[in-house]
Protein 1
Amino acid sequence: MSLLHVAGLTKHFGGVVALDGVGFTVEAGEVVALIGPNGAGKSTCFNLINGQLAPDAGGISFDGASIVGIGPRRLFRMGIGRTFQIAAVFQSMTVVENVQMALLSANREIFRFLRGVPRRRRGEALALLDRVGLAGEADRAARTLAYGDLKRLELAVALANRPRLLLMDEPAAGMAPQERADLVSLTRRVVDADGTAVLFTEHSMDVVFAFADRILVLAEGRLIAQGAPEAVRADPLVQAHYLGTTTDTEDGP
Ligand SMILES: Nc1ncnc2c1ncn2[C@@H]1O[C@H](COP(=O)(O)OP(=O)(O)OP(=O)(O)O)[C@@H](O)[C@H]1O
Ligand SMILES: [Mg+2]
C-alpha cells in the first residue's frame, strides 16, 4: 500500500482547468519531484493534498484511508507536513525557540510554553537544529538569519512534527543555484535518516534530477510522464513540453 495515493484528481477555477484527472502514488520514504511549467497545476496539487483546497473530483488517500474533506490542521496531526512561507517563522523569537514552539505544538504542550517554560524541549530543539546545520545560530533572533538559513529553520520546524509525508512547494525559490542544491541535498539527507517521504517542486532541473527518486511531470493540468529521473529526462513529450522551455534557475512568479 502506498503512503499517498492520488487518483483522478481534478480542480477547476472558474473556466480554468488547473488539474485534470491526475493520478500518482508516493511510497513511504520516497522523494518525489512534481515538475512542470508555470501554471501547470503543481501548487494546486499541493493545496489539494494538504487540505487547503477541496477537489472537484478524484480521490486522495493517505496510509490507506481517504483524506478528502479533512482540513490542514488535522492532516498535519496525521503526519502530512509542509514547509511554510518564511512569514510562518516567528521573527521575534530566537532560532531555537522557533523549533521549541514546533516541538511543543507537535506534542500538544503549547500552553506550557505560553505560561513561561522557555527551556522546555530545548535540548531536543538543539538536536534538530544540529541536523540542519544551524546549531551555531540557536540563540540569534530568527529575523537576523540569512535567507538560506531561514529555509533550514523552516525545515527544522517542519521536521519537529515528525511528518511521514513532507510537502515542499518550491522550497528553494529565490536562492542561488549552489544554495538550492545545498538545501535540497540537506533535506534529502535528513529525510532519509527518518524515512520521511517528500513530494516537492523545484524549477532547477539539476536539483530535481540529482535528488529525486522519481519525477512526475505536469503540463496544463495533466500528468504527461512519470518515472525515474533518466527515463523522464529522455521522454520526448517531456522535452517538448518542458525541458526545452525553462532555464535552470527560473523561479515561479
Ligand atoms: N485560486 C485560484 N484562482 C483562480 N485560478 C487559479 C487559482 N490558483 C491557481 N489558478 C490557476 O490554475 C492554474 C494552475 O496554477 P498553479 O498555481 O497550480 O500552477 P503551478 O504549476 O504551481 O505554477 P508555478 O510554477 O507558476 O508555481 C493556473 O492557470 C493558475 O492561474
Ligand atoms: Mg506553484
Protein 2
Amino acid sequence: MTSESQGLNYRTAQFLISAPKLKLCPPDTGREVAFAGRSNAGKSSALNTLTGSSKLARTSKTPGRTQLINFFSITEDIRLVDLPGYGYAKVPEAMKREWQRHMDEYLSERESLKGLVLLMDIRHPLKEFDQMLLEWGRQSHMPVHVLLTKSDKLKSGAAKRELNLIQNKLRDMGGEVSVQLFSALKKTGVDKLAARLDEWLVAEEPEVDQEEDFHEES
Ligand SMILES: Nc1nc2c(ncn2[C@@H]2O[C@H](COP(=O)(O)OP(=O)(O)O)[C@@H](O)[C@H]2O)c(=O)[nH]1
Ligand SMILES: [Mg+2]
C-alpha cells in the first residue's frame, strides 16, 4: 500500500462555517487541525494551495480584516481551521484583547484539536506572536508544525540555512515541534504538509475500543 492511498484528500475541502467565538463553532467531535500565523504570513495562500482551491480561504493584500474562526470540512468529522490573523498594526488594542480571549478559549477547550500549523514568513520568523503560540503548544502538549512560508523569496541555499537555524532554535525551546519550508507561489512543501496533517487527522484508534460503550445498565 502506498502512503498516498492512506492519506486524506485535502482537495475535497469545503467551507463549513465562520464562528466569532467558541460557542458558535461546529460540534466538538472528530478531529481538526488549526492554522495560525501573523497577518500576511501567507496563511490563506497556504490553505488555498493545500486544498487546490484559488479562493477557499480568501487571500488578501489588506490583512487583519476578519476576526472569525473559519472551518473547512475534509470529511464529515475532519476539519481544517483557519484562525484569525494577528499582529497587524491597524487592529485596535481592544480588538486584539478580544481576539486573544477567543483564541485562548478555542485553543484550551477544543477537544477535537489535534495539532497546530504555525505559519511564519521565512524572512520574519519567531516574532512575539509565534513565541506565544509555541509556548502555548508546549504547555498544552499540542504538537506544532511550523511552515516557513514564502521560501521562494530566498535562494535555495539561504532558505535551507534558515530552516536549519530555526529547527535548532525550536529544538532548544522544547515541545513537539516540526518545521519545513513552504511556498504557495512555487507550490513546494505541499506533500510534506499533507503528510504531517495526515498523522494528526487520520485516527489510529482501532474500532474495538468502542466496545466499552456497550455495557448495559440493568
Ligand atoms: N512570494 C510569495 N508570496 C506569497 C506566498 N504566500 C503568500 N504570499 C503573498 O503574501 C501576501 C499575504 O498572503 P495571504 O495568504 O493573504 O496571508 P495571510 O494574511 O496570512 O492569510 C499576499 O500578497 C500573497 O500573495 C508565497 O509562497 N510566495
Ligand atoms: Mg488570510
